[in-house]
UniProtKB/TrEMBL annotation:
InterPro entries registered for this protein in UniProt: cNMP-bd_dom (IPR000595), cNMP-bd_dom_sf (IPR018490), Env_Response_Regulators (IPR050397), HTH_CRP (IPR012318), RmlC-like_jellyroll (IPR014710), WH-like_DNA-bd_sf (IPR036388), WH_DNA-bd_sf (IPR036390)
Gene name per UniProt: anr_1
Keyword check for Glycosyltransferase: no
GO molecular function, one term: DNA binding
Gene3D superfamilies for this protein: Jelly Rolls, Winged helix-like DNA-binding domain superfamily/Winged helix DNA-binding domain
Protein name: Transcriptional activator protein Anr
Domain HTH crp-type per the UniProt entry, residue ranges: 150-219
Length: 228
């Protein structure tokens, strides 16, 4: 499936392609296709040859590693408007992680080789792409530092505050974008530690009902997490 006019307009608003005119974006993406994944599924596995990178048009993708016991450890959650797997393409490598699309996800699948060939004719675009990769690396490094320096309850609190901010909500209801088991993996704790963290946060006004949580006092939660 090729890009619709609406999808093309959306792509031009993504940081990697922002500021580029329509003809230039079309030239870069002329071999890209839209993949619709109503049931979700594995996109690629760790060690597979990196032939494509992706832009999430709708839905969500989990980038994960497997523990020694065969369990998923979520490293990154890719949401609408984010690209992923660029680094493996530009370095002519294999994918360093596994990628699984959630049900209902729509992706723009961009073949690496033709994209790089066209990019070689557009040297002014290279710094923009490098900035995108650098930003992703910085986010990962910041997250690693955060995980090392915070307790499980603080990690959970910081994650909930980020959800509130992304939803544009000053407080109230927030819904987890995935299961609590996936959340525990995402913030680097065990499911048992997550249950204890939720109990700890009750004292500062965080209530849990399944995947729905209520944050009564975001400022108190910020202070608890040391984010002031």
């Amino acid at each position: 499936m090729s890009l619709s006019a609406a999808d093309l307009a959306f792509v031009r608003g993504v940081p990697m392609f922002s500021g580029l005119d329509e003809d230039l974006v079309r030239a870069l993406l002329d071999e890209a296709v839209v993949r619709v994944l109503p049931e979700g599924g594995l996109l690629f596995g760790r060690g597979d040859v990196a032939a494509h990178f992706f832009l999430c048009l709708e839905g969500r993708v989990h980038l994960f590693a497997l523990t020694a016991g065969g369990e998923q450890s979520i490293i990154e959650v890719v949401d609408r408007g984010q690209t992923f797997a660029e680094a493996a393409i530009f370095a002519n490598m294999r994918y360093p992680l596994n990628a699984e699309a959630m049900p209902g996800t729509r992706l723009l699948e961009i073949p690496g080789a033709p994209f790089i060939r066209r990019l070689s004719d557009m040297p002014g675009l290279v710094p923009r792409l490098l900035a995108s990769l650098t930003g992703w690396q910085r986010r990962l490094m910041a997250e690693i530092g955060d995980l090392k320096g915070r307790s499980p309850a603080q990690r959970l609190g910081a994650f909930l505050l980020a959800l509130l901010q992304n939803a544009g909500s000053a407080g109230g209801e927030v819904q987890l974008p995935f299961s609590k088991a996936a959340l525990a993996s995402r913030i680097g704790i065990s499911p048992e530690s997550l249950s204890r963290a939720l109990s700890r946060l009750k004292s500062i006004g965080v209530e849990s009902r399944g995947r729905d949580l209520h944050v009564a006092d975001p400022e108190a939660l910020r202070r608890f997490c040391g984010l002031d």
